Amino acid sequence: MTAVLSLLLLATPPAQPRAQAIAAYADSLVGKHDLSGGGRRFRFDSVGVVRAAFLQFGIDLFAAPAQLDIERSGVDVVYQYAALNGKLHLRRRPSVGDLCFFGKTRDYDQDGAVDTISHVGVVTQVAADGTATIVTAGRSRVLTLMLNRYRPKDAQDELGQALNGRIFVGTKNTAPKLASELFYTFATIVD
User: Fold this and answer.
1) Among the CATH numbers 3.30.750, 2.30.29, 2.40.128, 3.90.1720, which is that of 15-188?
2) ∠ CA(174), CA(176), CA(178), 5° rounding?
């Protein structure tokens, strides 16, 4: 690895205190099934995880202008909030506290096709090699998922360290896919 690439990998801007606090709260949810934040309880799903973490610090990801289409899935509502109030980005290296959106994991609207945006999580750590730790809902508990956009085809590195976790796709006869295969975009809500 060249010295320039090494410097680029290490040049992640430091997380702001509020973004770090959101990430730490999301980390505190790992292993749980009951979700709460900001004095409210949330449904157990990926949207519940991110809403609990952000509302704990006064950010309601469902707050939106009247024209927002509330008939859509919760992930779509959070995505619309991020598009209106944050900064969507496709950088390979996210920041701590960013939202991470995945697509094609579920068919929420039950139209027979997996949805373009269907899962979300909170980035809680970013390693020197660019591997992001994302807190999200699994099938039965809150868990961490690894995502490395520098090495999108690799589940592990040469030492066996996780680079890209597997996400179960909610359609029949579909094998789990690497997080990098289902990645859609990041969003910075808190600068």
Assistant:
1) 3.90.1720
2) 135
